[in-house]
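Data deposition worksheet. Section B asks for the primary sequence of the deposited chain exactly as it was used as input, without tags or linkers unless they were present during the calculation. Section C holds the resulting structure in token form. Section D is free text for depositor observations; keep each observation to a single sentence. Incomplete worksheets are returned to the depositor.
Section A, Depositor: J.P.
Section B:
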Amino acid sequence: MTSNTEPREGFAAVGLILGPHGTDGALRVKPFNPSTKHLDAGRSVQLEGIDIRIKSMRESQACFVINVSGINTRKKASETKGLLLEVQEDKLEREENSWFVHEIEGLEVFDENNQFVGKLEEVLQPGANDVYMIKKDDREILVPATKDVIEEINLVKGLIKIRLENYPINNPT
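Section C:
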């Protein structure tokens, strides 16, 4: 099995396998959306193009511990480290106003005055909230992905509107 950091065409990554947990083949998984239902027991996801069924899932220290069909030893679980768990994009279930990282990276970012700030280069996940790295030319700015700063994310229009008045930085334009 090979590590791949991008989901396949037509699929969305719902979790990253961090490694084995215990000796029975359980996997430690970082969910890309902690409220996702796609990693619940009884659901099916894809692992390297193969359907696998989730037999059990529990939360444990900022990750999920799941048992899946076909993986029942620590050795097999170790072989999956770094792989993505995927779901077909047309089968994605999400809460209102929630997005997957791959859907918003690359979107254009504008401030409250409709001034182009840059493109969302990367979503960092350091802890309490995500941080958006926005890049324009050779300049990068970091803004917290909080309700005070993020005004709108519009996937249809391909843009993000932010309120810089709530997050003082030196002239981003």
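Section D:
The chain has a mean pLDDT of 87.
The CA atoms of residues 22 and 156 lie 43 Å apart.
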